[in-house]
């Protein structure tokens, strides 16, 4: 699994309905994208749910690099972002775990993303085990669709990403997003059902 995320920060007076319409028109295009486990079309809207800015911020969990590379390099989708907004920095992490939650069949409402630096003195195997344990704990929450963790070995940053069927509890750390659409063509491979 590979996690990928980019952020497109928009002007304070930007009409976010433009992004909502874009996702309504184009979001279905990744519903069958080969190699994609999950794509969450995310926004943060200034002065809503604690957001201080307007942002379009898609987050991906890839089952393989073939699909990810096709998306980025072969006109498989990212070129549309570049043409509309310029070329954003694409953050990537090596995946540790994606865990299906009790609400995995429900429509999404929100997402959270927490980024934490793995301390230099940390035992890396223990840091990975701790990240996995955290995802397993979060994924037990009744309104979780899926939760995942990954680490960027370049910056030693850990990301925990969770998709929620309801607004997440205040105790869940990290940035909060509204989910406009959730594509999950390879979700069963990414997070197999335990039933």
TrEMBL record:
Top-level taxonomic group: Bacteria
InterPro entries on file: DUF4865 (IPR032349)
Pfam families found in the cross-reference section: DUF4865
Protein name according to UniProt: DUF4865 domain-containing protein
């Amino acid at each position: 699994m590979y996690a990928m995320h980019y952020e497109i920060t928009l002007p304070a007076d930007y009409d976010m309905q433009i992004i909502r319409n874009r996702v309504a028109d184009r979001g279905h295009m990744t519903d069958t994208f080969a190699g994609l486990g999950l794509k969450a079309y995310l926004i943060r809207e200034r002065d809503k749910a604690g957001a201080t800015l307007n942002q379009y911020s898609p987050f991906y969990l890839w089952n393989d690099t073939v699909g990810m590379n096709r998306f980025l390099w072969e006109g498989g989708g990212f070129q549309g972002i570049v043409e509309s907004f310029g070329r954003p920095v694409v953050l990537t992490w090596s995946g540790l775990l994606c865990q299906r939650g009790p609400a995995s069949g429900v429509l999404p409402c929100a997402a959270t993303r927490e980024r934490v630096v793995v301390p230099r003195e940390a035992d890396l195997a223990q840091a990975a085990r701790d990240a996995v344990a955290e995802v397993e704990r979060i994924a037990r929450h009744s309104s979780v669709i899926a939760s995942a963790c990954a680490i960027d070995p370049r910056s030693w940053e850990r990301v925990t990403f969770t998709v929620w069927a309801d607004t997440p509890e205040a105790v869940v750390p990290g940035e909060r997003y509204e989910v406009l659409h959730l594509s999950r063509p390879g979700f069963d491979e990414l997070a197999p059902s335990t039933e």
